[in-house]
Design brief:
Blueprint lengths: L8 E5 L3 E7 L8 E8 L5 H4 L6 E3 L6 E3 L5 H22 L6 E5 L1 H10 L2 H4 L2 E5 L8 H13 L1
Parallel strand pairs: 1-6, 6-7
Antiparallel strand pairs: 1-2, 2-3, 4-5
Length: 150
């Protein structure tokens, strides 16, 4: 059975932007319509941090070890994936979709999958570990069709 049937929703996401799309046609010639978008401003970590990395006492006499800087950008991406998982739950609970394909950058996909509620996971009919957020819609349709049914 084809995955990208008429009415199937598709979430295309990375760590900063998400597109919720609905297929208006069939799997052979998908026609994805944007239903909703969600974005967050997430500049690089170097623009988000306020201080340089700290130091802490080491086991030796008067020795100090450097601490890694906090990756603020990655933390914001994780929070965005958590927000998407919550939004998917709310949308599933309101019966906005019965079937959904999740297409996201691999790390984001893993984070969404980890936080996903059972009510959403039971409706996931396909996953594509790719970042297509900046692709034109016709290219998204072609890639998703190939990945899911090819």
């Amino acid at each position: 059975m084809s995955v990208l049937t008429n009415g199937t929703w598709v979430l295309v996401a990375d760590g900063e932007k998400a597109l919720f799309l609905r297929n208006l046609t069939d799997a052979k010639n998908p026609n994805l319509e944007v239903v909703r978008t969600k974005e967050q401003d997430n500049p690089p970590s170097r623009e988000q941090g306020t201080d340089r990395a700290g130091r802490m006492p080491d086991s030796g006499v008067q020795q100090m070890s450097a601490l890694d800087e906090t990756d603020w950008h990655r933390l914001a991406e994780d929070r965005f994936a958590d927000d998407l998982a919550d939004l998917l739950y709310k949308m599933a609970h309101r019966h906005n979709f019965e079937r959904i394909v999740i297409c996201a950058a691999p790390k984001v996909l893993g984070e969404i999958r980890h936080k996903m509620h059972k009510e959403v996971s039971s409706r996931v009919v396909g996953e594509v570990p790719k970042d297509l957020t900046n692709h034109p819609r016709d290219e998204m349709e072609r890639i998703l069709s190939k990945e899911l049914d090819g």
